[in-house]
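User: Hello, can you help with two protein structures?

Assistant: Certainly.
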Amino acid sequence: MRERWGERLPNRKILYGAASAVVLVCLIMTYTRGAWLGVMAGMCIYLMPKVGRLKTRVTRRGAIVAGLAVCLSIPVALAVVRDVGLGHLPERISARVSARMEALWDLSKTEPFRLAQYRTTLNVLREHPFLGVGFGNFTRLFDRYKDASTPSPVSYIARTTENMYLMLACETGILGLIAALALFVAIVWVVYRGYRSAAPGPDRDLLLALLAAFCGFLVNMITWDALNQPTIRMTFWMLVGMAFSVRTLKR
């Protein structure tokens, strides 16, 4: 049966919801604050254009009914879990999530290093302000330029800036950082214009999703030198290539 855009079959919606739930659980249990910030930025960008459409489709009565259904289903689901002998499962999950949150929000272990890396970046730029120390050289020269406030390697073994923009500044200088930022802004602008000019349909929604993913990457790179990782770098540029390909084919 042929379906029009926006009229998805129920089984596809269920599959999409289940996949999203699994991804969120993995995000909470395995990834870091930077990943959460990136996902939040991507979700905001993706959902903002859909808020108005959602308001026109969801009535106040429907929203109230849905909210009541969710609130009533939670205790029922917990009762069923206990009745089938899995009563310990919610408690175990809650304990793991609590332990995870406590570990991630213990800023005393991570933030001193990040703050020291800002000072280390200034040390590098004092000697190499325009072109930096060259690609791949920051790690090799880390002990030479690291700030005195850098934590001991025993407590924190990283030898990178843990920030892609600081890494670009250290390895390519101010000129390289400005060039990289200009490139990122240009990519966002081109993909956004492609999204705005595309007709409603799957390609337009794909451009929006790719734009959200790319912006999420840019936010995540504040807390991680992501493009220094080969697999992540390939994924990053694959997203850009997909966005440009969709935009070009729709012209």
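That covers the first. Now for the second protein you mentioned:
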Amino acid sequence: MTTYLESSNDGFIEYISGSYASTYAYQSVGGNSCIIARYTGEIYAGLYYQDRAYKRFLLGFGAGDTIEAATLYWHLNSVPQNDGQKSCNLEQVNDYETLGSADWAITVKHDYGAVMTYNEAAGWKSQDVTAEIEAVKTDAYTAFRWRILTQPAAGKYQTFAISAYERTAYKAYLAITLTTGWAHARTGVANANIGSITGTAKASISNITGVS
């Protein structure tokens, strides 16, 4: 079966000229709520800016479940400043729980590399995350981060505006296809997802040849 899990929260952290600034839920870009991946090479009043964007998803599958396929979908609202000509990378990171400045340098579990380019068209984007979700399927949450790796040339900007949780129709989500299994071994007893025993279909198995 396929399960769809919407992002449960998101936000971005701003970094200004060598020190952490504030953590934000979203900001308005073109009248839309977005979280921001940004890096600027322009020095304004002696400062430069960098932002990293984060999203978090509820998991909590059983140990006996097998993740057959998992795809992360997110909506790119716009690339409002693209003269920096830098790509945006995606990373699976440790669960950040409540996003705070310490999560700027959160542990990266998997780096997917560049997933969007500076001339990327707006719309839905996706990344296969099957192996990584299988590895953390029993965790309560998993989280992802978007960031621009290298600073643009002096005076240049690079920004990716990813639709925020507040934009209901454009929430990021995980599409997960899984096979449900037992959490513990049952010796000699058929799995619950087997619907036919000796040609007889049963919604539940209560007694098979005298074994209850």
